[in-house]
Amino acid sequence: MKALSFLALFNFLLATGQNTLQLSKGQEPLEAKIELVSFMEGHWTGTAFGGATEEIWSPAVNGSIMFVFRHMTDGKVNFYEVGHIRELENSLSFELKHFDTNLHGWEEKDEVQQFKFIKAKDNRVYFDGFTFESVNENEINIYGLISNEDGTTNEVVFNYKRAST
After folding, report:
1. Most C-beta atoms within 10 A of its C-beta, which of 40, 89, 159, 165?
2. From which residue to which does the signal peptide run (predicted)?
C-alpha cells in the first residue's frame, strides 16, 4: 500500500512539476482580478530553450494585460507568442498563440492555448500549468509545464530580468 501511495505521489510530482499546479477535474477557477498580475508589466529578458528570450507586458487596461514574446538563437528569431491575461467569468485566464518567424500560427486559426487561474499565494500567481512569480521589482520567473511529443511533460523556468531602458 505504501509503495502505491509513493508511486502516486511521485507521478503527481512528475506531472505537475515543483512550481506549477494543475486544475483537478471539475475544479472551478477562483475569483480574481487583473491586479494580481500587475507585477508582470514591463520589458523582460532572459534565456530558455537554449537561446535568448524577451517578453513585453503592457499595463493592465479594462481587465486585460497583453504580452508579446520572442525566442532567439544565434541572433535569429525562432518563434513568437502573443497573448494576454484577462478577467473572464469573475476569474483570470492566461491565453496565448504561437507563431513562426513568418507569423504563421502554430495553433489552428480559431484555437487559443488557455490556462485557467487556480490561486494566488505570497508572490506567486498559479494558472493551470503556469506560475508567475515576482522575485523583486526587477526580476520575475515564469514556470511552465511543457508537453513533449511523447506525451510526457517537464517544467521549464523562464527567469527574467527587467530590461534596462
Report:
1. 40
2. 1-17
Cα separation, 120 vs 127, whole angstroms: 9
Kindly report the number of other CB atoms within 10 A of residue 93's CB atom. 20
* Three cell numbers, residue 123: 508572490
Q: CB–CB of 66/125 below 8 Å? A: no
Residues 71-120 have pLDDT tens digits of 999 999 999 999 999 999 999 999 999 999 999 999 999 999 999 999 99
Q: If you classify domain 2-162 with CATH, what class do you get?
A: mainly beta
Residue ranges of the domains in the chain? 2-162
Residue 23, CB-side half-sphere exposure with 13 Å CA sphere: 15
| Global pTM value | 0.85
User: Which value, in Å, is the radius of gyration of the alpha carbons in the chain?
Assistant: 17
- Rounded to an integer, what distance in angstroms lies between the CA atom of residue 16 and that of residue 34? 24
Taking the C-alpha atoms of residue 72 and residue 77, their distance in angstroms, rounded to an integer, is 4
Grid cell digits, residue 17: 512539476
